[in-house]
Structure formats: structure tokens, C-alpha cells
Specification:
The structure is a homodimer. In chain A, 36% of the residues lie in helices and 27% in strands. Chain A contains seven helices and ten strands. Chain A has helices at 44-51, 74-84, 100-110, 115-128, 144-156, 174-191, 202-207, and strands at residues 2-13, 16-28, 33-37, 59-64, 67-68, 85-88, 162-166, 194-199, 210-215, 218-220. A six-stranded mixed sheet of chain A has the order 6-7-8-3-9-10, sandwiched between helices. The first copy, chain A, has a four-stranded antiparallel sheet with strand order 2-1-4-5. The longest helix of chain A is centred in the C-terminal third of the chain and has 18 residues, at 174-191. At the A-B interface, helix 5 and helix 6 of A face helix 5 and helix 6 of B. The structure holds adenosine-5'-triphosphate (2 copies) and magnesium ion (MG) (2 copies). One adenosine-5'-triphosphate sits between chains A (11, 13, 18, 20, 38, 40-46, 90) and B (141-146, 171).
């Protein structure tokens, strides 16, 4: 489903090149439930952003569902993201002027799902993530962990082929994160949705069937050195 | 240092009252290293915002360093925050147009600390929190956990009487959070800085000398029911 070949991502910091990713080779098969773990600043968000087509590699190739992201136009990239990928951002990226319900249904609406079907799906999903009764709140009227759950609901509502979740449990308590992970494992098992998480949370790592360790922009071979 | 008497905080949700805090009685002594724990939505951020004078209670009294926050003018409240309280926000609240260095020195600058002394203190502190070399980056050029550490450096730079830290380790790996907690415990021990954390992180709860459990806006008596 996902292939990275010798991927490098460099940023410029006042002219000095910074290697956020330093030669990544990686393959993710359909149906995986995989975690990318590593210290703060090791390149997890950068990796997920490249796979999600939100950014382009400096060198190397990123292919998702057989498509090389660097040869796609912006329109084709946003179609790929809309129909194939659900993204949970580290900072949630909710739209402030839309309610929790409107944020969660946003992707289904863009996909043209009929209003009645959208409503059933979103109301049930918001209830499942513990936000029943909070549907008409704006993001600024929700706690940090409540906003995070709206972002998760939005990403999984359309049951995409691939969900990229950047630190999805950072701001929720252990009971809530256990039920969120149950929900995602169910989607993975019953609908074959592929999940790629970035996390520091041991509870997420415990449930992963595969852990990819990142350090200073490189993958650490398994069993090599202390994990996080 | 801090006293709350029968504090209630109500928000209006489309006209319906929502009780974020439902009758809180609490005393925090100088020098405490205390955690407020509880599920997502239980009222932790609301509690810290009231103690920090960033919001007013609907009913009841909040006193910090002997001053009742509801009788202070806005100018007196911001003086209290500037000289007595360091705040680490759940969403960091860094100023996007200032670099990491400028964000971290902001409070010391407002307090009128001489430039040379400020520079020494901030450069050493940013290095201690693992951000050496990143001082001239803007927030958008930093990872989530790097931004969080700039916010922590800003809050502790002036060694305030009280530090309110809302989920300060949510976006950092366990090694980094251990070193941040060591730094804060040192400040608590050597300079008598009082720390009040809100957290879901077991590593923070382990180091707390006191845990206050919050559920649905009320304090759960110790030893009563399952903790988080
Ligand atoms: N402006 C607001 N209007 C309406 N309700 C609000 C507002 N701000 C917060 N709330 C509600 O008050 C309750 C407590 O919120 P608070 O942010 O204090 O929780 P929290 O314990 O910090 O949660 P988290 O761990 O998810 O950050 C939540 O149910 C939230 O939805
Ligand atoms: N726009 C940018 N300009 C310069 N450097 C950047 C930029 N964005 C990210 N970086 C750097 O690239 C490195 C990797 O960042 P990334 O956000 O991928 O890390 P991360 O593993 O997600 O960290 P965290 O766990 O703290 O979220 C970091 O050192 C960061 O400072
Ligand atoms: Mg990140
Ligand atoms: Mg909170």
C-alpha cells in the first residue's frame, strides 16, 4: 500500500539544511496496524506528512496505492487524500467556525454522501468516541482531549483505505484512549482499514502488530538499541 | 498559597448551562509538587485557568498568594500572572512571529531583566530542555514536542512562585519527559517553586507528592473509586 525508497526530507533553517528524514526505506502492506515510535524531533510527523501527500520529499520516492506522490498534481493529491486517506493531525487542525458535528462530517460531505446517511454515521461515531451531547459545540468550547476525538472521528468517518494518526492519544486519559484504540482495531479487523500511528504512548505501542523505530530521521533496525 | 472555596464554573452551551467545575474546595501549600488527574473533560484545564486568574469562577472564591482573583482588576490580574505565576498551556500558545528564544525570554523581558542576564538564562535553559541549536526557529519550524518544550522554558525562566502546567508531557517521549520532570523537581526543591500539573501521563503522576483526582468537575475523595 505504501512504499518509501531512500526518502530524504530536508528543511532550511536560516540557510542551514536540517535533515528531518535521512534515507528512509519502508513498505507498509494493506491491513497493517503499525506504529512509528521515536523521540521528540526524530521525524515522525514529517514521515506521516510525506505519506499523506501533504508534503513532498527532497529526494527519494513515496508511493501510496501505487501512485508516486511527486508526479501527482495538487488536484490529484487532494483527491487521493479525500478518497483514500484519513488524517489525524498532532494539533488536531479542526476548523474553528464549524461545530464538532460539522468538523466530523466534513470529509463525508465532500465525498457527496447523502445528508441522512451522513447524519446517522456521524451521530453514532461521535457517541462512540464519548462526545454524545457535544455535537453542536465549537472547538474553543471543548477540552483538549474532546477536540482530539473530533479529529479522530473526522478521520475514520469515511472508512478510508489508510488512516494516518499523529499522536492520537496525547491528550486523552488511559480509559478513553483504550476505547479509541478498540474502535480503530475493529475498523482494521472488520473493514481492512490500514492504520499507521505516530506515538509516545505505551498503550498504543502495546496494541501495534508492528513497531517502526525512528531516531534522528533514520529507521533503527529492530532489536537494535533502546526503544522509546 | 492557593485556596478554592466552593468554586463553581459554568459555561453556556447554546443556552444550556454546563458545569465544568461543580463545587471545588481545595488548598495548595507553598512548595507542593501536586498533580490534578482525571478523564478528558473532567475539568482540569478549567481548574488551572481559574487558579491562574485567566478566567473567573461563576460562584465561590479563588485566592492566590492571599489575593481573591474576583476582586482584582484586569491590570492587577496580569501583574499577578507576570510576577507570580508561570503557565504552560495545553496548546502551548507560543507567539508564531517570535522565535523559540524570543518566546522563552518573553516573561523575563516584560519583567525588565537586563539583556545579558536574560540571554545567559534562556540559552542555558533551552539547552537543558534539549533545544540547543533550535533557538532561532519559529514555532512552525519545530516539532510538536519541541514547541511544548519552548512553552515549558518560557514558564519556568523567571522561577515564579507558582507554575501551572497543563499536560506538559503530552507530546514528548518518555526520556525527554523524565528530564523535564527532573528539571522541575530541582526547581521545586532548590528554589521552592510550587508546581501544579494537570496530566494523563503516569510518569508525571509517579513523581507527584500529591494527586488530586477530578471527575465530572468534582474532586474524588482519596482512595475512592478507580483512578486514572
Ligand atoms: N467555552 C466552553 N463552553 C462550553 N463548555 C466548555 C467550554 N470550555 C470547556 N467546556 C467544557 O467543560 C468541561 C471541562 O473542560 P476542561 O477543558 O477543563 O477539561 P479537561 O479535564 O482539561 O479535559 P482534557 O483532559 O480533555 O484536556 C468539558 O466537558 C468541556 O466540554
Ligand atoms: N519547517 C521546518 N523547518 C525546519 N525544521 C523543521 C521544520 N519542520 C520540522 N523541522 C525539524 O525536523 C525534525 C523532525 O520534526 P518532526 O515534527 O517530524 O518530529 P516528530 O518526531 O514528529 O517530533 P514530536 O514527537 O516532537 O512531534 C525536528 O527536529 C524539527 O525541528
Ligand atoms: Mg510530531
Ligand atoms: Mg485540558
Amino acid at each position: 500500500l505504501i512504499t518509501l525508497e531512500q526518502v530524504v526530507k530536508e528543511y532550511r533553517d536560516n540557510g542551514v539544511p536540517v535533515r528531518a528524514l535521512d534515507g528512509i526505506d519502508l513498505t507498509i502492506e494493506p491491513g497493517e496496524f503499525t506504529v512509528v515510535a521515536g523521540p521528540s524531533g526524530s521525524g515522525k510527523s514529517t514521515l506521516l506528512n510525506l505519506i499523506g501527500g501533504l508534503d513532498q520529499p527532497t529526494r527519494g520516492r513515496v508511493s501510496v496505492a501505487g501512485m508516486d506522490t511527486s508526479v501527482l498534481s495538487n488536484i490529484e493529491l487532494s483527491r487521493m487524500r479525500l478518497y483514500k486517506i484519513g488524517f489525524v493531525f498532532q494539533a488536531y487542525n479542526l476548523i474553528p467556525v464549524l461545530t464538532a458535528y460539522e468538523n466530523a462530517e466534513y470529509i463525508l460531505m465532500l465525498q457527496g454522501t447523502p445528508a441522512q446517511k451522513r447524519r446517522e454515521r456521524i451521530m453514532s461515531l461521535l457517541s462512540t468516541v464519548g462526545l454524545k451531547g457535544l455535537e453542536n459545540r465549537f472547538p474553543r468550547e471543548l477540552s483538549g482531549g474532546q477536540q482530539q476525538r473530533v479529529a479522530i472521528a473526522r478521520a475514520i468517518a469515511s472508512e478510508p483505505q489508510l488512516v494516518l494518526a499523529d499522536e492520537p492519544t496525547a491528550n486523552v486519559d488511559s480509559k478513553t484512549s483504550a476505547s479509541l484504540l478498540d474502535l480503530m482495531m475493529e475498523l482494521n479487523r472488520d473493514k481492512g482499514v490500514t492504520f499507521l500511528f505516530s506515538t509516545h504512548d505505551p498503550a498504543v505501542m502495546e496494541r501495534a502488530r508492528r513497531i517502526i523505530r525512528l531516531r534522528d530521521g533514520r529507521i533503527v533496525p529492530d532489536g537494535d538499541g533502546p526503544g522509546d
